[in-house]
Amino acid sequence: MCRIILLSIVVSISFLSERIHSLPHTSDNNSSQAYAHTFCHYMKSTPEPRVLIYNRIPKCGSQSMTNILLQIQHHDSSIDQTSRWKQFWWPGDMDTNTTLVSQFASALKKRLVQNKRVRITGHWYWHTFDAVHDFGLKRSNDVEYINILRECAPRFKSQLLFDLFDTKEAKAAKMNNKLTAHTNSLLYKDITVRECIEDFACLNNVFRKRILEENHQKLTGMMVEFLSGTKAKQEEGNSSFMGALKHLNKLHHEDEGYSALGFLEYYEESLELLECAYPTFFRHALQIYQQQQTHLHRSSVSHDPVLYKHPHFEQVLQPLCDVADNPLYQIALDQFWSKLDFVRKDRKSCCRSPRPRRPL
Fold first, then answer.
1. What's the whole-model pTM score?
2. Which of the 8 DSSP states describes residue 92?
3. Sheet holding 79-81, edge to edge
């Protein structure tokens, strides 16, 4: 059985590596500038949408982003945010759940009837909503998508530590003196967290099970699944990487894709680009963030630098991340810097103007 799984992993890596190396070199200066030029043209030729969808990837600073957006909403009552829709908070794959999509569309229509601009936030894989059919809007491009990315290895480390110590289940276990049983179940053996982190074989086993086995041997990791969605994955030869690549940029009215992507590692620069693309939704977002000067969620273990910065995390995760998440991250980051460079050189010809505030 182990040989079959290992063979499947090797074959998948080889196939995906060939697909990645056959891609155009998007880090090439001319190619990146072409993306940036098209981005600016799209921003200036389309008004700010009525609906902004943020299918947030876990452990990428999304709670900090949500907090910023809620503060903006507090000062602009024409903006509504659906971050409290519990039934849509973590639905996972929406491409295969038509009932949930219908419920989602119906709930959003009620918000739009109130003449508001709506930001939708939640943890789900990419799903293409039809602005006219699903939400009853007049323009097909009145729905746009954003997301925040993060380097793969720190994201998986943060997710593991969060699951061990900071989820509701972990906190409940601690209150009931059952934290050891909780952590043992996530580490797959009777061992303390410190002992496992300091034991390369233990930590390697934990991440291989979490990334390869529990996710049905999805070598691509969490980020590409969120950016791709099931439909695009199937259309691209069952490759989440290629499906995610398809969605990296919305460059034309008819395209499916993210109009803007940001990065946790470059949060202020990301807010600068988002303010350019969405001057109403992100009004003064950079200023609000600079006043906070911190991200909201930090793992309980992050205060222990010996554990949090242990080299075993990088040694274990880097080979797993190099399969697909890291190449996609680098492509998106190259395009991001090119766009931001264009914005900084000529903001007036690249950025949208804020919509006038709608009467309520």
1. 0.84
2. B
3. 79-81, 117-122, 51-55, 143-149, 260-263
Residue 124 phi, psi (nearest 5)? -150, 155
The answer to whether 342 and 34 are in contact (CB under 8 A) is: no
DSSP 263: E
- What the block records as the tokens of 121 is 């936030």
C-alpha neighbours within 13 Å on the C-beta side of residue 10: 6
Instruction: Return the closest-CA partner of residue 146 out of 218, 62, 214, 234.
Output: 62
Rounded-to-integer distance, Cα 123 and Cα 246, Å: 20
How far apart are the C-alpha atoms of 317 and 46, rounded to whole Å?
A: 41
| C-beta separation of 148 from 264 below 8 A | yes
Give 17's pLDDT tier (boundaries 50, 70, 90). very low
- 201-216 in b/e form (b: 16+ CB < 10 A) is ebbbbbbeebbbeeee
Measured between alpha carbons, how far is 230 from 141 in angstroms, rounded to an integer? 22
Query: How far, CA to CA in Å, does 352 sit from each of 43, 144, 346, 347, 358?
Result: 6, 14, 12, 9, 17
Report the candidate in 120, 76, 143 with the shortest Cα–Cα distance to residue 357. 76
Residue type, 17: S
Q: What is the pLDDT of residues 318-352, one digit of tens each?
A: 888 887 788 999 999 999 999 999 999 999 889 99
- Concatenated DSSP letters for 168-218? HHHHHHHHTT-HHHHHHHHHTSS--HHHHHH-HHHHHHHHHIIIIITTTT-
